[in-house]
Amino acid sequence: MSISVGDKIPQATFIKATSDGPQPVDSETFFKGRKIALFSVPGAFTPTCSARHLPGYVDKAGELAAKGIDEVACTAVNDAFVMGAWSKSADATDKVTMLADGNGDFAEALGLTMDGSKFGMGKRGQRFSMVVNDGVVEQLNVEEPGAFNVSSADYMLERL
After folding, report:
1. Which residues are catalytic?
2. Is residue 3 part of a domain?
3. Does residue 116 register a pLDDT over 80?
């Protein structure tokens, strides 16, 4: 069973690349008392993720903030070093916080995993977006396999 609107975000530890090296980020602390636009991609540097998904949130970060979003964050089943390099290559550093879910624990706790074995990717997180308000899911947009529509920054903005 996957997470739904009204559910509390599960406890998990992300890893964030920083200038001091990889740092743990507790999900409860990260989402507490703030309104976060979170989106998940199957993998950093993959075609749709790099060409459309991340750039959309980078471009729309200001508009999301104007609609009450305190922070935009991206998660993927990748390590913090890959997420950090992807952030730099996409000029996302000051606009989107990269939260590595290296072992897929967060995606699994959400019930939003996918099997990317056919592409040599193993277990990954599905493509989705959500608005989390003080740790509770307020908006949830899960893509159909292979699609990129409802998890985009534009779709989220239309619903805020």
Report:
1. 49
2. no
3. no
